[in-house]
């Protein structure tokens, strides 16, 4: 049963930026305060430079003809010194803000990523991790999608834009001080244009990415006739005209959208340029007129001109706007996941001992979104210590049944009991601690070979003798001892000193991991095609010692290879989610039913002499 994604509230994007800033403070208060301070300083210092230049211009006007040693000249020197100091302060503060903002963003991304990971790991079942809607929300919370913008990027982008807005608001205030109301008008006009520019910029990025995906197939159709691997068949089958027509039929509609968007963008750019030009020209004309008529000083003219120039940066849409837009959406998705305060761990109370008979009572299961049930009223009792084999065609429900018995899924109906105790949400993790498995798609951890095996019982990872024993049982010890760093070799060539293992070696590692869990108390072993990557000899050796290796444990084996299935004490046959046969190998052969039919079909392949 997959997770009900409606349990996740919809992402609240309206107030996500204030919430993200508040979250940043809770994660790293000192870094948040320092980032805010440096952002304000980096934005305010240019405003101070503008004021100093205006004062310097007025001072120079007064000092003309008075000589270098006059008080007016000395006042000019002081303003020059102020400008130099503020210039260096601007760049130092901006560099510090950049470094602090990036570091804070990474911290926020890491903590929100941890929150999402813990929330996704909190359910004891795994169905929600197979739900496309849930996985999509996981991806969006990490910043996957149109462009990679994790939540922390919004924090960094906000710190940059904050500096810009401090400069712009300060410049508008200076312009208003020079001429009352003028700064407010210019700021309002530029802010409106800015909001539209940012909106268009984000849309353009999204459409460009989407168009790239659409044009990828178009490019493929264009390139097939000239690709060496396909060129022979294109000529032999006369496919050149087909690919030409297919290319044209897809290229023109896709490009029509691009051309339409470009025309709209060009028209908007023209409007922006005209409005901006008229606004700036009007402001400079008015400032010049007031200075010429004595309504203001030359310094006021300089301050006004520099303020307008600073306000022009509002008319810029850049990557920081993308960071805030897309990063905020990722943060909203991350905030929608619940906070899991403690690491995922089993309850302190162990499963009631001893682990007894496993029974499935009227078990039903349906995958999320599916119209048909995978299992229909399955009744099955497995005594403690019995070795059971489950066989059937693909899609019969074998792996689903094994997952329900392991407690990895919650049934849609019916109950799984162990020793009379039902497996439920409040004790599911405790039961899982009693289960080890070798699934067909077992995990391959890019960690040391020691970790890969010790994960079978992590609490006993220091059991060196046990690790060597299970490696020997799985036929892996010689391989481990031949690795560059032995047990501490990382199982991936992507790391210095690491190595890649073959499929068969990885399968042996997975088997050793399960055996290590059995060695330290696990009572149920599930093996889903455990020898799929082993050669025939290695598989035979594994199953010859299978019962010895799993003595005392209940085992459930799923396999298509009947030479190994026949070694089990009991065999059940699944067909379309129902058990249709149950017995020993000999009993099922004598019954001459589905099992006997499948067994003969497989045996026939080996009995037929080559022609």
Account of the protein in words:
The protein is an alpha/beta fold and 611 residues long. The protein is 59% helix and 9% strand. The strands form two sheets. The protein has a six-stranded mixed β-sheet, with helices on both faces. Strands 2-1-4-5 form a four-stranded antiparallel β-sheet. Strand 9 and strand 10 (578-583) form a beta hairpin.
The strand line-up of the biggest sheet is 6-7-8-3-9-10
CATH class identity of the domain at 5-336 = Mainly Alpha
Give the overall average pLDDT: 85
CATH superfamily heading of the domain at 5-336: ABC transporter type 1, transmembrane domain
Secondary-structure arrangement, i.e. CATH architecture of the domain at 5-336 = Up-down Bundle
- How large is the count of helical segments? 21
Structural class designation: alpha/beta
* Tally of strands: 10
Task: State the CATH topology of the domain at 5-336.
Answer: ABC transporter transmembrane region fold
Secondary structure blueprint with pairings:
Blueprint: H1 16-27, H2 29-63, H3 71-121, H4 132-141, H5 151-178, H6 182-223, H7 228-236, H8 240-292, H9 298-311, H10 319-336, E1 358-365, E2 375-382, E3 387-391, H11 398-405, E4 413-418, E5 421-422, H12 428-432, E6 435-438, H13 449-454, H14 464-473, H15 477-481, H16 503-519, E7 524-528, H17 536-544, H18 546-549, E8 554-558, H19 562-565, E9 570-575, E10 578-583, H20 585-591, H21 594-607
Parallel strand pairs: 3-8, 3-9, 6-7, 7-8
Antiparallel strand pairs: 1-2, 1-4, 4-5, 9-10
């Amino acid at each position: 049963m997959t997770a009900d994604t409606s349990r996740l509230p919809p992402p609240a994007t309206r107030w996500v930026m204030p919430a993200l800033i508040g979250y940043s403070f809770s994660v790293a208060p000192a870094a948040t305060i320092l980032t805010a301070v440096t952002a304000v300083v980096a934005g305010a210092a240019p405003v101070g430079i503008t004021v100093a230049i205006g004062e310097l211009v007025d001072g120079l006007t007064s000092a003309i003809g008075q000589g270098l040693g006059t008080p007016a000249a000395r006042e000019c020197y002081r303003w020059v010194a102020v400008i130099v100091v503020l210039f260096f302060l601007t760049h130092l503060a901006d560099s510090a803000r950049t470094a602090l903002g990036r570091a804070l963003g990474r911290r926020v991304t890491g903590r929100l990523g941890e929150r999402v990971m813990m929330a996704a790991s909190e359910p004891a079942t795994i169905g929600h991790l197979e739900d496309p809607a849930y996985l999509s929300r996981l991806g969006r919370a990490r910043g996957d999608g149109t462009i990679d913008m994790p939540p922390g990027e919004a924090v960094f982008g906000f710190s940059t834009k904050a500096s810009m807005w401090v400069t712009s608001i300060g410049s508008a205030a200076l312009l208003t001080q020079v001429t009352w109301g003028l700064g407010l008008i210019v700021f309002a006009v530029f802010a409106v244009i800015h909001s539209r520019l940012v909106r268009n910029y984000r849309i353009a990025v999204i459409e460009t990415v989407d168009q790239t995906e659409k044009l990828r197939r178009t490019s493929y159709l264009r390139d097939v006739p000239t690709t060496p691997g396909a060129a022979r068949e294109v000529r032999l089958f006369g496919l050149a005209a087909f690919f030409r027509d297919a290319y044209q039929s897809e290229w023109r509609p896709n490009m029509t959208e691009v051309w339409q968007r470009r025309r709209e963008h060009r028209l908007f750019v023209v409007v922006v340029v005209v409005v901006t030009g008229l606004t700036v020209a009007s402001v400079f004309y008015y400032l010049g007129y007031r200075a010429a008529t004595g309504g203001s000083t030359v310094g006021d003219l300089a301050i006004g001109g520099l303020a307008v120039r600073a306000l022009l940066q509002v008319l810029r849409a850049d990557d920081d706007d993308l960071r805030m837009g897309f990063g905020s959406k990722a943060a909203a998705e991350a905030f929608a996941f619940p906070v899991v305060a403690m690491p995922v761990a089993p309850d302190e109370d162990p499963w009631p001992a001893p682990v007894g008979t496993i029974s499935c009572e009227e078990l039903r299961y349906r995958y999320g979104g599916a119209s048909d049930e995978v299992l229909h009223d399955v009744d099955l009792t497995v005594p403690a210590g019995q070795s059971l084999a489950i066989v059937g065609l693909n899609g019969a429900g074998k792996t689903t049944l094994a997952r329900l018995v392991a407690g990895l899924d919650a049934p849609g109906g019916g109950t799984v009991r162990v020793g009379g105790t039902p497996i439920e949400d409040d004790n599911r993790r405790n039961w899982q601690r009693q289960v080890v498995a070798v699934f067909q798609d077992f995990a391959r951890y890019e960690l040391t070979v020691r970790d890969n095996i010790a994960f079978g019982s992590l609490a006993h990872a220091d059991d060196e003798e046990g690790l060597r024993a299970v490696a020997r049982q799985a036929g892996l010890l010689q391989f481990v001892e031949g690795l560059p760093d032995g047990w501490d070799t990382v199982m991936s060539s992507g790391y210095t000193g690491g190595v890649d293992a073959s499929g068969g070696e990885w399968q042996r590692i997975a088997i050793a991991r399960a055996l290590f869990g059995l060695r330290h108390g696990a009572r149920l072993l599930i093996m889903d095609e455990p020898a799929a990557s082993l050669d025939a000899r290695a598989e035979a050796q594994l199953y010859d010692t299978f019962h010895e290796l799993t003595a005392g444990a209940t085992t459930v084996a799923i396999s298509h290879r009947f030479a190994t299935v026949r070694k089990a004490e009991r065999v059940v046959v699944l067909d379309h989610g129902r058990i249709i046969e149950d017995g020993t190998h000999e009993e099922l052969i004598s019954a001459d039913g589905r099992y006997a039919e499948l067994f003969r079909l497989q045996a026939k392949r080996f009995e037929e002499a080559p022609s």
